[in-house]
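task queued by scheduler; priority normal; single chain, no ligands, no partner chains; default sampling; output format set to structure tokens
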Amino acid sequence: MVVLLIAYYSAEVYADGTVVYHGEACVKVMGERRHKITPDRVAQLVKAFEQVNYFSLKDAHEVDEHGLSYTDLARTTTSISMNGKYKKVVDYLCPPKELVALEDLIDKLAGLYDRPAVITQTLNKPWDRSGGSVSHNFPSVQH
């Protein structure tokens, strides 16, 4: 029997650079932690959302190319609120590679890799598609 433990956490990034991390399960640090990132990193995040044309992405990626879905996969949710618009995208199965790259960049620029005590690197990546859930929320990034 193989048991896969996947990190379950969320991170909110605000326009002033405040990052609010919430560790829920399978992470080294449980609960809420706060830190700041530079204005340059916030700007890079906004640019990354714009480059993938985030507001045009499908709201959910939950089936494969044959229309089939599976259970027990990791679910990554990203969202952004910018210039009066809000968008949320759920990545459960077969997302476009640009979305996966954005998810990775969010963790990097939000400083989650800079804080090794915060995230357990499960199977080398906290967002591994093997089960569990990861959430990235950007409720107040203003451009």
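post-processing summary
- The helical segments are 39-51, 97-109.
- DSSP finds two helices and seven strands in the chain.
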